[in-house]
Amino acid sequence: MESVVSELEGTLVKDPDPFSYFMLVAFEASGLVRFALLLILWPIIRLLDMFGMGDAGLRLAIFVAFAGVHESEIESVARAVLPKFYMDDLDMEAWKVFSSYDRRVVVTKTPRVMVERFLKEHLRADEVIGSELVVNRFGFATGFTRNEAGSIADRVSMLFEDNQPDMGLGRIPSGSSFLSLCREQSHPPFMTNQDRDRQLLRPLPVIFHDGRLVKRPLPSTALLIILWIPFGILLAITRIAMGLLLPMWLIPYVSRLFGGKIIVKGKPPPPASGSNSGVLFVCTHRTLMDPVVLSTVLQRSIPAVTYSISRFSEILSPIPTVRLTRIRHVDAEKIKRELAKGDLAVCPEGTTCREPFLLRFSALFAELTDRIVPVAMNYRVGFFHATTARGWKGLDPIFFFMNPRPVYEVTFLNQLPVEATCSAGKSPHDVANYVQRILAATLGFECTNFTRKDKYRVLAGNDGIVSYTSFLDQMKKVVTNFNPFIH
């Protein structure tokens, strides 16, 4: 069995400086005050590094980011937030070399808890060697770390006992002592051994992630975020007030003055007439703003069925909301009553997904009407995500409108022909799968068979039903290029 030992910082991930990941922990686990304090200390950390005292700077960053934070909160951030940013920074050439070996070990200078989940479950690492956070008896991190069993080189040596690792991956300037233990060494830029190409694996994608920040907070980005927040709060209040006070037809024109933009493609259907039941707009679910944007584009108020938005978001909503119970027959009656009154919007995924994937569509909508208009919705924001699973959901609309230039793309597809509906003998699941596929194709997304329960099980770390590793190992079975699924 051939083995490889690789550095994480500057090798498997491109950035050799882990400071931005400590900033993420500070923001997501503690909030803006700790985030700002760590940024203020960044010049000192950089000076220590320049004068050859990088270890002292690293310990200072770790102390400020973690001191007083509960261990469960740190694990939550490491599970739900950090993997997305590590994956975005992944060096694919280093990954190709790393993945071609049978036994894979990663060495990191950050606390192991930050990276272990990402490395083992997305990069298939077998072992992770890093420092350990010291936690007091109440479960709070002290901000200090310890290196178990001596230096990194000693721990690598103990891990392999009398054997030598076949390959060591690391930066030349880093002077990583473990590299001298390896039979061969490789440094960036990496060249993939063509003889080993047949063994290359694909890193398992990050489908579900959480957190408010869109971009990794490098010092310059973090400074912009801090400076923008006071203006962003005022802008959010102004935008929300406009949505509540102005007539629907006027909002698209006024929103442009405040940086918002809506791109509309396709031709929406006319309003429901008195002789017909309403149209059911079946939308992809990117943020809680999807039905509001739909109503803005149609220039009329379209009620939306919801599952779990906060009461505060319902109060701020400029459109009527119909809260569902997740009891099938009760929800079916509610939707039928609303369709009898007029048009209605529904997001069959049941929860948002930030990545270019669509979750499995609930088939309930297909049972209730044949007047189905698929609507492909997507969005772009600069600073803040509009939905979160970990934080207070009542802040979701505030964070969305705090973005300097939020952009929404709305694409109306043609109403489903009768032969594609349940009236032609199609099963509700077939109809739901068909709508999922054509919406995914429109957006350039991939269909999955994952559900709302899968998302929250992953983000909450509840491995009692299915471990996350085995969950992700099913990717080849459940991610497809627009092929139908069996529900």
UniProtKB/TrEMBL annotation:
Residues 279-380 form the Phospholipid/glycerol acyltransferase domain. It is found in: Membrane. The keyword tRNA processing does not apply. Signal peptide: none annotated. PANTHER family: ANCIENT UBIQUITOUS PROTEIN (PTHR15486), GLYCEROL-3-PHOSPHATE ACYLTRANSFERASE 7 (PTHR15486:SF54). Belongs to the GPAT/DAPAT family. This is Phospholipid/glycerol acyltransferase domain-containing protein.
